[in-house]
Specification:
13 strands; alpha+beta; five-stranded mixed β-sheet; 52% helix; two-stranded antiparallel sheet
Length: 839
């Protein structure tokens, strides 16, 4: 409330009537108006308010009309008018504040020119050039409390500091502080600003502050309310002000304010420079510690180690690997150990900080991946799915593209699949690819080929092509090889189905009992592996081990049957398996598949390569067909061999050779059906160096038409492509390799990429197109190792980050300033007490 002065009686009575009419909306009205200049001069005394000036009667009437119109928008106007100053107490009852949702008009001093040349001051108005008056808002001042609360005074320029000191404490004219106390309401009197020169206030917070403490204090002070939130308890204002101005912190801040500007500017700037040096050193220290934490996380991710344990307390005897490794780092790093021995504000060893750092590392990785994708023309996506240890369906997405004249495959993310329909799967894949902006770059999509995937009408590959028009569907050839063997060995030929069921019994018998495994180790140096359900080369290892070690296995089985100490179940099963190894048909089929399976392994290894292209697939398939045909020709020889085992029955005629031939014919037919006459394989023949001598004589028109049909948006100039290929076929100097990648590199080394531009485009597409989903298979294996049974509650973001650190550890370690980028993202994620960014 403004300081109250005496005023003429006639004016006071008129003004009191006006206040009575506006009681519901206005508590106090500042200023006063005199009806007659001469009467004011005759009745004025020294006790009148200095700030109240005379004003013409016409203006008073205009101002009263203005107040009446603005009543609904005014909550409270500071000031009061009284007939006698001495009759009021320091804290008097105040009228209830209006509950109107208006805005308090700011108080601004206005000077009115009088006829005698003097000026009249009026709050809330200013005079325009035409002699009229208008409202004027409070201009921004640097000593305003709200401004000082937002900025750090110590970092302001010296000139601005001195200006704030010159202005002194801000004492808003429109300040209203009310505190209900029973039937009375306490209100703040402006005379307190005169009593306590250090006192200032905020109209927005409706609180009192200490000016020196606001400039130089901080939250660590005992009485910090005067510098942070503001003081509002008017009942105990006298005691609290006395206590505060007697405190050591207030006196220290007041001394600093008094000495501000008393020393020369060079000293002031030197002090600021020293302070900046200290802050810079602390920031550098924080960044160093955070960098070591990031390195520790990278090591744990690379080795696929669990970060935390159930008990991470200081006295835990079994902490997590992250803490153990970090403590070991401290022992070898004196700088890091000195930081933690000093009990710093930032430690960074909590699980919360670990998760935040992992999120930042994964985000930086995705940003770097997105930058690489911007500089590549074509991208392919590979997708596979598996059920993890928590019985959740996880789908992995891998991107394949060319960078620096070589092909690379990068892990993108794991997606928890909740909707396994074609629509649900395609929507999840599109959502993951959307941030990468691959609409015009995606040229291929590779899956395992299940019905929900390969459906030509409503499958995932069809729904993906609606958004990515260039993305042709490629059925993983490694899966097709597995399907080929399944068709040949189990589905169509009953004798082979029985054979593989009997063969599986050897792995089951020896792998389910440690005693049986130990017994086998006494006679054989190789164990019989149990074929996992996800292996694509069927039971190759089991076939090879049983065939190579059949005598050792037979000896072990006989020992189990004859030696004491074995249970009935073991003896019974050992007898059955020993009879298989003495059965002529079983041994013939075992020898047959012992010759076939190495060829399967060769083809499988080729199909699993990262940099394989269509031409290599074609050559590998052709070689596989040749080898299988040779084995077929020897089927009669294998089937008609006599058993060397003594005691066997006399020679019997069997149909084993016919079964072998049928198996070979089935495999060849399945391979031709699944690996031949496929559009993208036909198109890849255009850049198959082994076919160039043939194409010199007869240009491959069908293959060219197939390529144009597959990628019409990429291969825009068919005529130029045909001319380039025709000339390329006649240049043996460029036929330096067997793969499309080597051909592309030869063209680049000869600086012919601009001349053979359409050919290079075709080569990029074929190289980018994945032949298998082997990389997703490898990533799923990583998921199984990371998300073990003991960590099956791991969050999805944490899983992606740890998988990225494990799968792409070489790429992450090769990124320039990876740690620095993670630190910046970590610092900008939210407001942190510790500084990690240099000012």
């Amino acid at each position: 409330m403004d300081e109250i002065k005496t005023e003429p009686v006639d004016f006071v009575q008129d003004f009191q009537e006006y206040l009575t009419q506006q009681t519901q909306n206005v508590n106090m009205i500042s200023g006063s108006v005199c009806e007659d200049k001469e009467s004011l001069k005759g009745s004025s005394t020294k006790e009148e308010m200095d700030e109240i000036k005379t004003e013409p009667v016409g203006f008073v009437q205009d101002f009263q009309e203005y107040l009446t119109q603005q009543t609904q928008n005014v909550n409270m106007i500071s000031g009061s008018v009284s007939g006698e100053k001495e009759s009021l107490e320091p804290f008097q009852a105040a009228a209830p504040r209006s509950e109107q949702n208006g805005l308090d008009p700011p108080s601004v001093e206005v000077t009115l020119a009088m006829e005698d040349g003097s000026d009249v001051q009026m709050d809330g108005l200013e005079r325009t050039c035409d002699g009229k008056y208008k409202s004027m808002g409070l201009s921004h001042t640097t000593n305003n409390v709200d401004y000082l609360l937002k900025v750090r005074f110590s970092r302001l320029p010296l000139e601005e500091k001195l200006e704030i000191k010159r202005l002194g404490p801000h004492r808003p004219q429109d300040l209203v502080l009310l505190q209900p106390s029973g039937k009375m309401t306490r209100t703040f009197k402006r005379e307190w600003f005169e009593r306590k020169t250090w006192l200032t206030a905020s109209t927005t917070k409706r609180a009192l502050f200490c000016f020196p403490c606001l400039l130089f204090g901080d939250a660590s002070f005992i009485d910090s309310v005067w510098a942070t939130d503001g003081y509002k308890d008017l009942k105990h204002l006298t005691e609290r002000t006395a206590k505060h101005e007697s405190s050591k912190s207030h006196i220290n801040c007041a001394i600093k304010l008094g000495l501000l500007g008393s020393v020369n500017r060079v000293a002031q700037q030197d002090s600021l420079y020293q302070q900046n040096i200290l802050e810079h050193k602390q920031t550098e220290e924080n960044r160093y510690v955070l960098g070591r934490l990031i390195s520790c996380l990278k090591l744990c991710g690379k080795c696929e180690l669990g970060l935390v344990c159930h008990d991470e307390s200081a006295d835990s005897v079994n902490p997590g690997m992250f803490r153990c490794i970090f403590e070991m780092m401290c022992e070898g790093d004196t700088r890091l150990k000195r930081h933690y021995d000093s009990e710093p504000m930032f430690k960074g060893t909590s699980s919360t900080i670990q998760n935040e750092l992992l999120d930042c590392m994964y985000e930086v990785y995705r940003c770097e991946l997105a930058k690489q994708l911007l500089n590549t023309r074509f991208v392919a996506v590979q997708v596979d799915e598996i059920t993890d240890n928590a019985c959740k369906s996880q789908m992995v997405i891998v991107l394949r593209y060319m960078v620096d004249n070589s092909v690379t495959e990068r892990f993108l993310e794991f997606i928890e699949v909740k909707n396994k329909t074609a629509t649900g799967l395609s929507t999840a894949i599109k959502h993951a690819l959307e941030p990468m902006r691959l609409t015009e770059k995606l040229v291929a999509q590779t899956y395992d080929g299940t019905a929900v995937i390969r459906g030509s009408a409503g499958g995932v590959q069809k729904l993906m092509k609606q958004s990515y028009l260039k993305a042709i569907f490629v059925h993983c050839y490694a899966h097709q090889l597995n399907l080929t063997l399944q068709q040949a060995c189990a589905s169509r030929i009953s004798e082979l189905k029985v054979f593989f069921a009997d063969l599986a019994g050897f792995a089951t018998f020896f792998s389910t009992s440690p005693n049986r495994t130990a017994a086998l180790a006494q006679t054989s140096d190789k164990r019989i592996p149990r074929p996992p359900g996800t292996r694509l080369n069927f039971e190759s290892k089991t076939v090879n081990v049983v065939w190579e070690r059949q005598e050792d296995i037979l000896e072990c089985l006989d020992n189990i049957r004859t030696h004491p100490g074995w249970d009935k179940e073991s003896i019974s099963e050992a007898y059955g398996l020993s009879m298989h190894l003495r059965d002529r048909t079983f041994l013939q089929l075992l020898e047959f598949f012992a010759k076939v399976m190495p060829e399967v392994d060769v083809l499988d290894c080729i199909l699993q390569q990262r940099q394989i292209d269509a031409s290599e697939v074609t050559r590998a398939v052709e070689n596989f067909k040749v080898q299988v045909k040779e084995i077929r020709d020897r089927a009669d020889e294998i089937g008609n061999q006599d058993s060397k085992e003594p005691g066997t029955a006399k020679r019997r005629q069997t149909n084993t050779p016919a079964v072998m031939k049928e198996a070979c014919d089935t495999m060849i037919a399945q391979v031709e059906d699944r690996f031949s006459n496929i559009d993208h394989l036909l198109a890849a023949q255009l850049v198959d160096c082994s076919l160039f001598p043939k194409f010199v004589k007869s240009f491959p028109e069908a293959q060219l038409a197939c390529a144009i049909k597959l990628w019409p948006r990429a291969l825009m100039n068919e005529g130029k492509l045909q001319h380039e290929l025709a000339l390329l076929y006649g240049q043996p100097a460029l036929h330096t390799g067997k793969s499309a990648l080597l051909l592309f590199q030869a063209i680049r080394e000869s600086h012919l990429q601009d001349v053979l531009s359409e050919t290079c485009t075709l080569l990029r597409i074929i190289i980018t197109t994945p032949m298998t989903s082997a990389e997703p298979e490898r990533n799923l294996s990583t998921l199984k190792r990371i998300k073990t049974f003991t960590r099956n509650t791991m969050g999805h973001k944490r899983l992606n980050a740890l998988s990225m650190l494990s799968i792409e550890n070489e790429y992450v370690h090769g990124l320039v300033d990876f740690n620095s980028k993670v630190i910046v993202r970590f610092a900008q994620a939210k407001n942190r007490r510790a500084n990690f960014l240099f000012k």
